[in-house]
Amino acid sequence: MTNTSLQIGDVYALQEKETGKWFTFQIVQIGEENAVYIDLDYWSEMIPEENDLNKMSYLRLNHHLWNNETNQCWAPIKFFPSHAKKVGNMPIRPFEECKSFGNWPNGSQQKWTEKWKKLPKDQVLAFKEARTKWNETIIVAGKEVKKNLYGLSDDTLSAVKDYSEFDKLLGLGRITTTKDNPQLIPFLERRFLIRELVWDNCQRRELDLSRTHLEEVEISGENIEVLLLPSSISTLTLRGKLSPNLRVHSPNDGYYMVLRVELHDDFLPDVGLSRLTNLRLTSIQDFNLKDIPARYPGLTWLGLAGKPGYIREVSEISNLRELETLTMDDLFGFSADDFPHPGSLPELRHLWIESVPAEAGKIIKKLYKGNIQDLQVLKLRSVEWLHENLNNPLRNWDGNELVPKSKYNKSVALWKETRRRMMEEASHAELDFSAVKRIAIDYAEGFNKLDRRSSFIETEEREDIFNAFEQILNETGLSEFKEEIIQLIDEKRSW
User: Fold this and answer.
1) DSSP conformation class of 225
2) Are the beta carbons of 77 and 3 closer than 8 angstroms?
3) CA nearest 231: which of 212, 244, 206, 203?
4) How far apart are the C-alpha atoms of 33 and 11, rounded to whole Å?
5) How confident is the model at residue 4, as a pLDDT?
6) What's CA 7's distance to the chain center, in Å?
7) What is the Cα–Cα distance from 301 to 326, expressed in whole angstroms?
8) Residue 116 is inside which H or E element, if any?
């Protein structure tokens, strides 16, 4: 139901879930369907009262790459949080035109502001200054690099004997590696602003990141059995084949943390994290949900994405009594009778399902319409569609309003022809690599032609095109040439 009681100048309070602290925001503009709010600087364990209004100002953000800016956002009035406490009304101050659209605040800005105030001031100032040095360069490991370099990868990491060389790079925020250097973790422990680590094929049995300051960690490695995370962690991504003995230890036991798992052979080890609140499973081929509620009873968000794939015992989702958001994409093998009915999930506010069985999707949409705050049911698929597109890496373009149907059909035809030619070349007793490169160039130029008159290839489509060719390389056993071929496509593309 649309909230018609909102008034310009109203100040509301909500409780941030992870810390339990209260924060406030002010309504500064109201449209027909959306309203603009601005975060205020109140952040306390005490519920604010009306006499606290004279102490509140617009929150000035300085965490991460913010630079003393206010945070304002257009949010849908119909989704205004009904549990928000009205504190009172006060005059609005001048604010810049709002061009951001999203949802109502959850306290993350106030929480990050508090966290960044606790970081070493010298590292914070050096990081922010380095990030502004767009044209300045510096010599590191014998190479000229941008002074504002954000990410380091193996080519540079392997070029030095002493990691103190990287102390020149004050704007670093991400490390990507496939190798195990004993200096890496001590380096991360003393660099408070490096927030991302991607470690592929980690060979350690125990990986202790507990004294680092990482927010996002992405790991693959079958040998890992013990993974220790820092208190700063917000997202852990696990990829590839995982050890059945893997256990993950987090100071909050997974509370208010996102666990993403790119499933390998549909195996999900019981990693612990019994207080986990956000679980996202991808690359599902045939997965049974029966163990999820017992392992993670406190989930507030469950995301499921197929390859596409089949999902079993969908009715088990009804046992997640605290679930607020459920997303499902490219998943089949269930009926509307299997799916939780309205009322079985008392806290559910957001239900987004896309590319699911047509018959089930239609009934689910009818059941939930008007009974949930946010409902999206898109791209309902027939059994025939599934059979035709099971291995089609561009299938998510079908029904995408940004990709014309004719462009989608021609793109799939181009991919199929490319795959046929590559399979033929790979079948020869002796590989003609020049022919493989010619196919890759034709692939890039084919999409150049499709995108020329009316552009439809954006960031997501671009990634899909590269991933589609990588799939062909994996199928034909030519993945060892992936780096060179992908670089060739990148050089020849105009999209």
Assistant:
1) -
2) yes
3) 212
4) 19
5) 58
6) 34
7) 6
8) helix 108-117
How far is Cα 2 from Cα 141, in angstroms, rounded to an integer? 59
**Cα 327 from Cα 351, distance rounded (Å):** 6
What is each CA distance from 372 to 34, 245, 350, in whole angstroms?
Answer: 18, 39, 7
Degrees, nearest 5: CA angle 468-242-262: 35
**Residue 285, phi-psi category: left (phi > 0), alpha (psi -120 to 50), beta (remainder):** alpha
Tokens for 45? 């364990």
| DSSP state at residue 241 | S
State the number of CA atoms in the 13 A half-sphere of 86 facing the CB.
12
What pLDDT is recorded for position 221?
A: 96
DSSP SS3 for 121: helix
Model pLDDT for residues 282-291, shown as the tens digit of each residue: 999 999 999 9
* Other Cβ atoms within 10 Å of 469 Cβ, number: 22
Q: State pLDDT tens for residues 435-482.
A: 999 999 999 999 999 999 889 999 999 999 999 999 999 999 998 899
| Strand-pair category, 22-30 with 137-140 | unpaired
Q: Please calculate the CA angle 43-46-49 and round it to the nearest 5 degrees.
A: 95
Which residues in the chain come in under a pLDDT of 70? 1-4
Q: What does residue 88 show for φ and ψ, rounded to 5 degrees?
A: 160, -160
Contact between 284 and 309 under an 8 Å Cβ cutoff? The reply is yes
CB 345 within 8 A of CB 320: yes
**What are residue 258's DSSP bridge partners?**
235, 278
- pLDDT for 2 equals 44
Pairing of strands 72-76, 85-89: unpaired
**For the segment 28-42, what is each residue's pLDDT rounded down to a tens digit?**
999 999 999 999 999
Q: Quickly count: other Cβ atoms within 10 Å of residue 88's Cβ.
A: 15
Hey, what are 392's tokens? Answer: 């089609």
Cβ neighbours for 23, distance < 8 A, ≥ 6 positions apart: 13, 14, 15, 16, 39, 40, 42, 43, 105, 107, 110
Helix/strand/coil percent split, the chain, to 5 = 30, 25, 45
Percent above pLDDT 70 for the chain: 99
Q: Which of 242, 232, 162 is nearest to 202 (CA)?
A: 242
